[in-house]
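Wed. Picked up where I left off yesterday with Anti-ECFsigma factor, ChrR. The coffee machine is broken again, so keeping this brief.
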Amino acid sequence: MTRHHPDSLSLMEYSAGNLSEPHALCIRLHLDECPHCRSRVDTLDSLGAVMMEQQPKVSVSESMFDSILARIDGAPADQPQMTPAPRIGALQKLLGEDLNGLPWKRQLGDVSVLDITDRFPGQKEQVVLQKLAAGGKAPVHTHRGEETTIVLQGAFADQKGVFNQWDFVVLTDQDEHKPVAVGCEDCITLSILSAPVKLTGTFTRFLNPFIR
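Structure written out below (tokens, as returned):
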């Protein structure tokens, strides 16, 4: 069961088609498993269709925007189950094979990475798969920009809680954390970074010049 979700603004941007391809992919993968967020997006899609049917020039005031957000946030959590889109198919189309069979590169300690930015031509942000070995710990770090992450396999824990498969999380330069893989399998995530991470450990911080 997913416990960590995209915020209302992200879902609105997704519904409007304003997100970049990698950001939209992260949300789509989450929606495949989360009926509550799918219901919210369905509501947004319906509202958008109604607005499109109105007069060509429609003024959207700040109060109307806040009203829409309130309506989305107030939607009941228990919604009828809908058949999800094939999330594994979306990943296989992108990666071409099973997650564990990818050409991972050891980065630091228990962390392996695979940069897939080149699969999203024209993107300014870095798109990377990260694998944290089962029971392993990532170095303590913060972020120079924003990092959007969805858990594809396994789970990890930090000071904010436990993030299971298909959970969604956004971190900024205000967040410092040290993820730990929980459970019996490797934790694999898909992340979009606007800037490289910044290691803050006593010794690992000296490696920052070598981190892309």
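Quick read: The domain at 8-73 is CATH 1.10.10.1320 (Arc Repressor Mutant, subunit A).
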